User: What shape does this take?
Amino acid sequence: MPALAASLPLAGLPLRFRAGLAAALAAGFAYLLLSPLMDGAANVALKGSGVALLAVSALQIRADGARWLAAILALGALGDVLLELPGQFMTGAASFAAGHALAIVFYARHRRAARTGASTGASTGNWLVAALLLLYGLAMPPLITPAGMIFLPAMAYAVLLTGMTAALWLSRFPRLAVLGALAFVLSDTILVLRMGGGRLLGPDADGALVWILYFGGQWLITLGVGRGLLARAARI
Assistant: This one.
């Protein structure tokens, strides 16, 4: 039983960090359930609260790099709010883009050390995965954006998003965080598809899936990066 407890994702984390993650998860779940029943300022506030609580929880890590993570998440929370305000879609997208750019710098500062010998192939493979992620960012918007619609802004954003994911893949942070970033990429892929009039499952189901993948991705990034920062602090 103790071994099982030690293997759980939240095991061994500081109480305040765990509490913040739990509160954020509750807020994200509440938005998923209540958003169809709400509108106006209450809906906007509830949507922004989930990732805002993740930013607050990041500040409870008490390790070098926690403020970087909190800033990245804060830009995401701001983007969540702005996207819900009339006429602020591009401003909201710019907030997310700024967060991705900041994340690229942060994760690059924590890149895995280069190794020689038997690890050369693994290192080459990691760079190949990173290149494929960036290639997806370049290819995705033109492929799913309807003819006649401008896809260049979406491409610029997608490259930053996949660049963030690639930088995280090349970093020392746990793969759990990479899983979250991939969920974020998938969420925005479905979002771009919906903006072009396409469907995956249906309007309501696709909307719910976008939120689940996006918020779940942000939650996993926070957990994974937080664990990595704490592990690094423990070794210093």
Residues 1-7 have pLDDT under 50 and may be disordered.
